[in-house]
Amino acid sequence: MAQWDRLRQLSATYLQQLNELYDRDGLPMDVRHYLSAWIEKQEWQRAARDYDVAMVLYQVLLENLDIQHSRFVQEESFLQQHNIRRYKQSFQRHQDEPCVLASTIQWFLDKEKEILNSAELSEQVQLLQVEQEAMETTCQQELQRKMAGLRNDVQCLEHAIICLEEQQDEFDFKYQTHKMEAVTDEAQKNERMKMFQSLINKLNDYRKNTLADLNKLLDRAEDLINLLVRKELVDWQRRQQKSCIGAPDNVCLDQLEKWFTCVAVCLFQVREFLNKLDELVGKMSYENDPIKAQKPALNNRTDALLKDLLKSSFVVETQPSMPQGKGPLVLRTNVQFSVKTRLLVKFAELNHSMKVKVSMSREAPQIKGYRRFNVLGTATKDLNMAESLSGGMVADFRHLSLKEQKSGGGGKGISEISLSVTEELHIIYFNTVFDLKGFSVELQASSLPVVIISNSSQQQSAWASILWFNMLSLDPKDVMFFGTVPAAPWPQFGEMLSWQFLSATKRGLDDDQRKMIAHKLFGKQQNYDICQVTWSKFSKENGPDTFWVWFDGILVMVKTYLENIWREGLIMGFVSRGKEKLLLKKKKRGTFLLRFSESVVGGITFSWVEMDSTGEPDIKTVQPFTKTDLCQIPFHEIIRNFQILEAENIPESPLLFLYPDTPKDEAFGKWYNGKTGADNPYMKYIKTKLMFVSKENSLEARSPMSCDMTQGDCLEPMNGLYGEAAEQEDEPRLLQSQLETFQDPMLSSSLPLDDDGLLYMSFTDSDFIQQPDQFLTDFNNLLAPSLLPAQTCGGIFQ
């Protein structure tokens, strides 16, 4: 099915994302719709780099718009004719730069794919949670059954009160008629009095039954409120906590809103029933009237239940977040953030009548140096149904900011607990008043704890605090959490790490990857489920390279540069040296795998199988690639063009099969740049090759990657040019190599290099700063896939 057709079949949530996408200028939705088939068949990515291709597509686009305009002329669609003419005039601005237009269209298509991927992920999550959903469905069905029972009880009670009123009117009519007739016959009089007494007794019994039914209805309402407030709402709050840190949990409030509103409507009807009973008592009462005796307690109980329901119905639907933040709940002073509140009890007559006010807590916890903040911006808004896609009662604050108060937080009586800025937790409060049909109650909602920073360098540490709190805390108001911070059980911790990849790239960590991380943290264990990770181990150890810094560096690199191949499952990623060797040594020559560096933050490398002179497998690896390299050349192009100098000085790619046995071009080919030779935009990085040759110049006698430092007989890197490049360069420069020891961020000490030590390139600052003319060539040498020295996988895992 065409991409546009798939998009049009998405649910309302994703259609809203599509509408927001096409609110931007660049590609009108009408053009995307009417020319969808043609647009999706064109190579816009190629056109964005090739002027000639872009110009051809630009001309065809204008022709298609003319054809579409002619169709609207035939259909006499005046408005569409006007729009198409206007769109064509807009596109004609790109006549001198068609590549920009092609890049813009490609951007829209990529964003569409992101929306589709999000929708598909949601479907996959639902499939993976079949059992849980079945259980939830059963609970929801039971709740729906009870809700239907409550509505039925209200209808029955309404009918009962009508009957009660009819009985009372009947008695009153007969009694008033009797008094008007002035019966003098004692026998007849006694007979009528017996009849009236019978009617009174019947009326009294009916009143008692009605009051009993009222109590039963309130029992059912109380049971439902307990389910909604103590279970369903608490479960939603926990799901929201987890979704804030990447969990794919459903946090839609529409169903809860229906349930809360249903119970509230029923309780307001009960209040009307009680008022009706008051009216009936005012018309007629008698000694030991059950209504007079029981109604005050029923009034109090109804109001208490309604108050309990309403106080819980005011929630924060979308937690505070900055537009460019690392995630929700991390706020920065003097930077705008948004937050949305919602009232789960929806009455149309309350639209725009309830004002919500934002504030910070005035009572700071007993923490030394605890900061206080003021809320700036539009801090008061009406609850309304216009700002919600589902028509819910929301107040959407979009332009709030925080400013630190001048007065310090310290003072007498403050405890000696000292927290860092990124461990301080603050809560934002929202207050409003519910007032309907004579019932009024003050409501307050509160955000999850936020971390407030003053500069962007604190974001990484702040996000670590948000992850830890929402992973472990079941008390959403525990601002003292980091005073005595608990450890995280491995199952929860591993799941949280997977959520980070899932939310950033739409692909989480598999069991093998999580097991490797567990092995890195705890060493070899029989059962990792009983292991725990401390807060200090995660993010607070002395030194810059904590576990979180290392892990987040990988996450940012994958999201920024490797998302496509990560989503396809082409990166094994988290795999230990020992496991890597076990996997590769059983494979044929040229088999390679991709893994993340353990010693270089935000680094990725690859290792492959070579055969030594005895025919035994020899595992090679290269110095890790970082954002310095990947921002210049895509990783799949590095893999595609990586070469080493083999026998007879013939350059050859050692990377043939992605583990376990997928041909390299089959795995990565769909991302290759279509241009070759001088037209290849990455040619300036790959035309200069860094070769390794032994002093004996004999590959049969010695592996080109090995090095024996004790004998002084090692490979020499030779920066050589060949082909066209050789004719243009007369003086090839040499780049030195050296052995280095890396400190593993997860280990207490570094491991010594052994005979399988890694071989790295070394550059001095002067190579880059003092010689600008030479910089480009040397930098190209660094980034060229084949320029990076191949190394043996030895005693330290990069």
UniProtKB/TrEMBL annotation:
Keywords: Activator, Coiled coil, Cytoplasm, DNA-binding, Nucleus, Phosphoprotein, SH2 domain, Transcription, Transcription regulation
An annotated GO BP: signal transduction
SMART domains in alphabetical order: STAT_int (SM00964)
Main subcellular location of this protein, as a coarse class: cytoplasm
Coiled-coil regions listed: 140-167
Pfam families with a match to the protein in the record: SH2, STAT_alpha, STAT_bind, STAT_int, STAT_linker
Domain SH2: 566-668
Subcellular location field: Cytoplasm; Nucleus
MF terms (GO), sorted A to Z: DNA binding; DNA-binding transcription factor activity
Cross-referenced InterPro entries: p53-like_TF_DNA-bd_sf (IPR008967), SH2 (IPR000980), SH2_dom_sf (IPR036860), STAT (IPR001217), STAT_linker (IPR048988), STAT_N_sf (IPR036535), STAT_TF_alpha (IPR013800), STAT_TF_CC (IPR015988)
GO CC annotation terms, alphabetical: cytoplasm; nucleus
Family to which this protein belongs: Belongs to the transcription factor STAT family.
Protein name (record): Signal transducer and activator of transcription
Protein source organism: Poecilia reticulata
